[in-house]
Amino acid sequence: xxxxxWQHTTHSATLFVGAAGAARSGRGDDVADxxxxxxxxxxxxxxxxxxxxxxLQWRTPGTDFRVHRARDGxxxxxxxxxxxxxxxxxxxxxxxxxxxxVTNLRLAAxxxxxxxLEPGMRLSFWREVGKPTHRRGFLDGLVLDHGRLTAGVxxxxxxxxxxxxxxxxxxxxxxxxxxxxxxxxxxxxxRTQPFGSGATCAWxxxxxxxxxxTSVPYRLRVALTDTHLAGAWETPGPPSRRYxxxxxxxxxxxxxxxxxVRCNELWRLEYDLDGLLVTQRRVAANNALxxxxxxxxxxxx
Length: 301
Prior knowledge:
Elements: H1 3-18, H2 27-59, E1 68-69, E2 77-85, H3 95-112, E3 115-117, E4 122-124, H4 125-129, E5 140-145, E6 148-153, H5 158-168, E7 174-177, E8 183-184, E9 209-211, E10 218-224, E11 228-235, E12 241-256, E13 259-272, E14 277-290
Parallel strand pairs: 8-14
Antiparallel strand pairs: 1-3, 2-11, 3-10, 4-9, 5-6, 7-9, 10-11, 12-13, 13-14
């Protein structure tokens, strides 16, 4: 909590109560002002609490978040890699928000590229990237707020967590914290991954954390090309397994007038190098409120 803000809000509330009988004609404006200040105080207090809770997790003994960086050639083998386009055709949205997103992604990539996850260590996306602020160079990008597309500082960083999550599912690394998207905003046109295969983020409470439960180190590579955000997980030696993600139990339920919920499960299938299935495990169960009309006929080319 920021004491100065709280004290200022309390002081304003006291003035409002003391002047209630003297300024009757402006009472509605005073009430609205008081409530706005009250919401601001609660918001600030909540943000401080969330930051403290996350800081305590990062500092509590038992989990090692102290990753380091390596940019030499010791990690010669790629275990998983993926790339997603930087700019998408989104009708009705300010294109500047997508260009700003590219700047935000470039700043985050600079904090993540080369991170080495030693055995037993855990990577926290927000611990490495830090708080996105204008002072640090982050810009207003596209943000999904309760199903509404709007602008916010650091907007678009979920493209990075989406990439990291999808790559990690194709490795033996373990995702220990991941927050799914609560809204399914865009139809499947052009979709190359299953629904629900991303990970949202919001400083500092909605984090993506990945733990190395293997006996070998993994290095993360992240970079931006002219057109794509690209990433990879690398190891010193060749991988002994390969992984595939399979969507199961996909369904759309009607929850009321105009309300449809999309659900599915994601399963990770582990194969040996001869192509034999070794294990299969459910890694995610998703459900999201659809923000578009389902069951539409396919578009005519």
